[in-house]
Amino acid sequence: MIATELAILAAPSGSINTEGIVTFFASNIAPILLAVLGVIFIGRASRGEISKVLTSSAIAIVGLAFIAGAATLFFVGENIIDLIFN
Q1: Most buried residue, 12, 14, 20, 25, by most Cβ within 10 Å?
Q2: Mean pLDDT of the region 43-57
Q3: Which long-range contacts does 14-19 make (Cβ < 8 Å, 24+ apart)?
Q4: What's the farthest any 2 CA atoms get from each other in the chain?
């Protein structure tokens, strides 16, 4: 069973389901990471480290903005390239 699954994974199909990968990360991994960040921030805030919480929160928000920008470019990048080079 495992050998056939590996053969299927190793077989060149010509395309990768990147939309499925992005959907998996957006629906499963991202909420878990955000929950972990929230627990860390709440733990720091309860100890009185408000300045560290604010700094970390700002960094996390900027990071999410970069991730959102990358996702946007991922979906509309081909259209932008077509506009520039055609």
Answers
A1: 25
A2: 84
A3: 18/74
A4: 57
* Phi, psi of 70, deg, nearest 5: -65, -40
Do residues 53 and 41 make contact, with C-beta atoms less than 8 angstroms apart? Answer: yes
CB-based contact 41:56 (threshold 8 Å): yes
SS3 8: helix
Residues 6+ apart with CB under 8 A from 37: 56, 60
Q: What is the DSSP string of 31-66?
A: HHHHHHHHHHHHHHHHTT-HHHHHHHHHHHHHHHHH
On whether the CB atoms of residues 52 and 44 are closer than 8 A, the answer is yes
* Token duo for residue 71: 């996702």
Integer Cα distance of 76 and 85 in angstroms: 15
